[in-house]
Write a structure and sequence with these properties.
It is a single chain. With 243 residues, the chain is mainly alpha-helical. The protein has one domain: Rhomboid-like (Rhomboid-like fold). It is built from 11 helices and 3 strands. β2 and β3 (164-171) form a beta hairpin. The radius of gyration is 18 Å and the shape is globular. The protein starts with a strand and ends in an 11-residue tail after the last helix. The relative contact order is 0.17.
């Protein structure tokens, strides 16, 4: 289930969304240039729950050592598929959220969702020693905001059935609601997995769940005119066929 585009036009260019996509790509290219040193760098600026809690408990690190991984980890990625999947979802859903929040508020919103997603993941995997990397939690926050603001939008979705592409228009509330439920169930099933107990790598399902919910909640303090007024200002939708 992969989104191709939606039918909500933006009233202004989503400069911050483009900037976030560009930064993610540039950081990934920098990662590739590190070669064999990449793992060492990821250990330092990736978000490691066990290390974060240790520093908090013993006061063994200055504040920058705590804060930098919380933010820097949002722009690191574990591979091309990880990067491309994240920036495509951000491209599809981020422009409309930025359009309603405004450029500055959208940047604050994105970073806040990402940091909150990291901390929520920390609650479920406090002993993990594997660096958490990727902007999935922040992008999940964008998707949560879109789910709340544009439930009736149409999302052109690609399904692959035995390598046969099928294109279906789905309501945003169905596409994003199903995505959220899948993250929740995968996260629930992962609670008993050895990977979560021992700190082995895997998908941070609870970062996705937490980011999605935080994205909805943050609309209320960050919306410039309040969520109700924002909903009243939504632009008319255009048919997907016209694009």
């Amino acid at each position: 289930m992969f989104p191709l585009r939606d039918n909500i036009p933006s009233s202004r260019p989503p400069y911050v969304n483009y900037l976030l996509i560009a930064v993610n790509v540039l950081v990934f290219l920098w990662e590739l240039s590190l070669g064999s040193h990449l793992q060492q760098v990821a250990e330092v600026i990736g978000f490691v729950p066990a290390r974060f809690l240790s520093h908090l408990a013993y006061g063994s690190a200055p504040w920058p050592a705590l804060l930098v991984p919380l933010f820097a980890s949002l722009f690191l990625h574990g591979g091309w598929l990880h990067l491309l999947g994240n920036i495509w979802f951000l491209y599809v859903f981020g422009d409309n959220v930025e359009d309603l929040l405004g450029h500055g508020r959208y940047l604050v919103f994105y970073l806040a969702c990402g940091v909150a997603a990291n901390l929520i993941y920390l609650m479920f995997a406090p002993r993990s020693t594997v660096p958490l990397v990727g902007g999935s939690g922040a992008i999940a926050g964008v998707m949560g905001a879109y789910f709340y603001l544009f439930p009736g939008a149409r999302v052109l979705t690609l399904f692959l059935i035995i390598f046969i592409p099928i294109f279906v228009e789905l309501p945003a509330y169905f596409f994003l609601g199903l995505w959220f439920l899948l993250q929740f169930f995968y996260g629930t099933f992962s609670l008993g997995a050895a990977a979560l107990r021992t700190g082995a790598g895997g998908v941070a399902w609870w970062a996705h769940v937490g980011g999605f919910l935080v994205g909805i909640l943050l609309l209320f303090p960050l919306a410039p005119l309040g969520v109700r007024q924002l909903l009243e200002r939504r632009r008319p939708r255009r048919p997907l066929e016209d694009e």
